[in-house]
Each structure stands twice: as C-alpha cells, then as structure tokens.
Amino acid sequence: MAQDNLERLDLRAPFDGIINKVDVQSYGNVSAGAPVVTVYRSDRFEVNFTVNFDTVNMLAVGKPAQVRFAARPETVLDGFVTEVGAHADQVSSFPVVLAVNDAPADVRAGMAVEVVLEFEVIDTPGYSIPLAALVDDVDPEEDNKAQVYVYDPETSTVKRRPIKIYGVKHNQILVAEGLKPGDRVASAGVPFLREGMRVNLLSTD
User: Among 52, 123, 179, 189, which one is least packed by beta carbons within 10 Å?
Assistant: First the structure.
C-alpha cells in the first residue's frame, strides 16, 4: 500500500515541455484539484486574441494565419485557428485561439505577437481602413454592427457611424457600406474617443 501511495506522487505531464511555475512548496498541503505546477509545451504555442462581431463570423476552426513576434518582427510563423468563441468576453469582443507549431527555441510564452488573417475579398466597391479604426465598445442594442468614429469638420468633433464589413486584407478592413468620399475616419487613439468629443486633426505637413 505504501508503494502504491508513493507511485501516486509521481506526476507526469501528457507532453514534453518546460515548467513555467511551481505553485506548491515542499512538505506543503495540497487540496484536491489545486494546481501544482504550470507546464507549457516548448514545440507548440497558443495565441489568444479577440475579434469583433463581423470578423468572428468569417472565422472557422482550421483557418490558416501568420504570427509575427513584436520582439522579433523578422520571424513569421504559420498557425491555424483551433477555437472560435461563441460568447463575447466583452461587448462585441469574441475570443479566438490560434495554434503555432515549430516555434524557435528562443520563443517564450507571454510574448506579444501580431496575428495576420486573410479573407477572400469579394469584388465589391468600397473603402479600406486600418483595423485600429474599429470601435471596441459597441452597444449591444446596435445589433453588434461594426462602428468607426468619423470627423465632423463643422463642429470639430467625432461621431460614431455603423459600417458594413465585407473582408479583411493586410490588416485593413474592407468597408462596403457606411462611408462616403471625403469622410475622415479616426484611426489613432480610438479607445479614448467618445461620441461628440472635440478633436484636432494631425498636421500633414
């Protein structure tokens, strides 16, 4: 019986990896279900990020993607979508998980990355705007439609406007409806903007 209890103390991970964190101390008491160590695989990483309502409807498990590391922009790795959230963590912000295989040995968990997803572009007239122009805190009563802030030159303020997205390419949102020629769309500091806020245009000189 003593030998059987001793064998139960031998903890084995289901994969080869690296111990990232030890949650218990020697001779300490461990409750049932409590974490003992945190282990991550050294040959495969997961990338967690969020997308808006329009984009999540264009994603599916298995969709290929590319990952660039902020600390190593010259390194581009191939990955694929493994999970697509059905429920938003925040308003119109849906979680997505991406798996990355064959990562270099010096890549570590927790590094900042940029995810590149490409979608089929339909031959539709419209406009392209940066991904950063999208408003995150969309009101659920607006049917989760994508929105941007458009500059009003008469009042020097920004106003929200719903748009219809038909694709994403090279980190640009392709807009089919909601914008017209001459519109100035805010693409910097968008999380800090509010409806009717007065702003100053950046000089182009």
Answer: 123
